[in-house]
Design brief:
Blueprint lengths: L9 E4 L2 E4 L5 E3 L3 E4 L15 H17 L2 E6 L9 H11 L2 E7 L8 H8 L5 H13 L11 E5 L7 H17 L3 E4 L6 H10 L7 E3 L8 H9 L3 E4 L10 H13 L6 E3 L4 E4 L6 H4 L11 H12 L4 H17 L7
Parallel strand pairs: 3-5, 4-12, 5-6, 6-7, 7-8, 8-9, 9-10, 10-11
Antiparallel strand pairs: 1-2
Helix pairs in contact: 1-2, 4-5, 5-6
């Protein structure tokens, strides 16, 4: 079986497999485009035209490349407006590596109605797993573009039964293909439960990124996840409207002070193009320049980390070494 990441050291991107050592500086959670389920029903505001989105996304990538970024993971799940052919065109035009995902989003904002309806006629976990495995090993839709990772998600304060089904399906797919898993959490909650459920289902902890862990300053929560072997995603820099960057920097510096740099990846969770209009223009205009800016970490956060006593070597580990190690499936060495 062709797997999402293999012992040969190759990794699926939207333009085909590359050597894991070709990743270079890598941001591990950015979005080319997002479309919340139902966006296609808004015929008044369908969102920008394809050529407009391509221009916006090309500009974002060129800005990232000017800071030395060579690759990114776009963990958009199947039910959030994913368009892998668009990403492939973008990647080919810019020479920038994009890894796409298979998976499903949290119950509150994902594609539950379809799976709920389907579940009335039989179990859905195996069907979800079959979908994930096909997209990891054969291709997405009618394309031969293969995902390189599985995306799962849970909401704030609880993992619902539907989200447990997705986690179980992700574990089945990961065990069958060797693909790693990245997660969405809200407000720094439920990462420990995600980790517990996935590990209990046979997924090695080091093949899991607990995403948006920077949504809390709870140091014990962070260390508990790290001690059990998973990676933390400090991957929402710039989204102060959700949680302030000042707290993210303090929390990250505290972990790096204890030499946990080998298990942390960084990013912004930026969204460059929206299907429909989930954020009205008047609102987005007041959000400031840092939100959804994929160069913010390099321009503003790295100087703050250096001023807080973090070394350039530790920053390089998070940006270069950890994505390679994670996709290679190699367990990090704890401090």
């Amino acid at each position: 079986m062709n797997t999402a990441n293999t012992s040969s050291g190759l990794l699926n991107t939207v333009t085909g497999p590359i050597g894991i050592d070709e990743l270079g500086v890598t941001l591990m959670h950015e979005h080319v485009m997002i479309g919340y389920p139902g966006w296609e029903a808004d015929s008044l505001r369908p969102g920008p035209r394809r050529e407009e989105m391509l221009a916006v996304a090309t500009d974002r990538i060129q800005q990232m490349q000017s800071r030395g970024v060579q690759s990114m993971l776009d963990p958009c799940p199947n039910d959030l407006g994913r368009d892998v052919e668009f990403s492939a065109e973008l990647s080919a035009a810019t020479g920038f590596n994009i890894i796409c995902a298979t998976g499903l989003y949290k119950e509150e904002e994902g594609g539950k109605p379809y799976w709920h309806f389907r579940g009335q006629f039989g179990p859905v976990v195996d069907a979800m797993a079959e979908l994930f495995i096909h997209e990891l090993t054969v291709g997405i839709g009618a394309t031969d573009i293969k995902a390189g990772i599985i995306k799962v998600a849970s909401g704030k304060g609880v993992v619902t039964d539907y989200e447990r089904d997705i986690l179980q399906a992700a574990a089945l797919a990961s065990n069958a293909t060797g693909a790693p898993i990245t997660t969405h959490t809200d407000s720094g909650t439920m990462g420990d439960e995600q980790q517990r459920l996935l590990v209990a289902a046979g997924v090695p902890a080091h093949k899991i990124i607990i995403g948006h862990s920077c949504g809390t300053a709870d140091h014990d929560y962070h260390v508990n996840l790290l001690e059990k072997g998973s990676y933390l995603g400090f991957d929402r820099f710039g989204i102060d409207v959700v949680y302030p960057d000042a707290e993210r920097v303090r929390s990250l510096a505290a972990l790096l002070n204890k030499q946990w740099q080998q298990q942390i990846v960084v990013s912004h969770d930026s969204v460059w193009c929206w299907r429909g209009e989930p954020i009205p223009a008047a609102v987005s205009a007041g959000m400031g320049e840092t939100i959804f800016n994929p160069t913010h970490f390099h321009d503003h956060i790295i100087p703050q980390l250096l001023a807080a006593g973090v070394s350039q070597s530790q920053i390089d580990t998070m940006l270069v070494d950890n994505p390679r190690r994670f996709f290679a499936g190699t367990a990090p060495v704890a401090p």
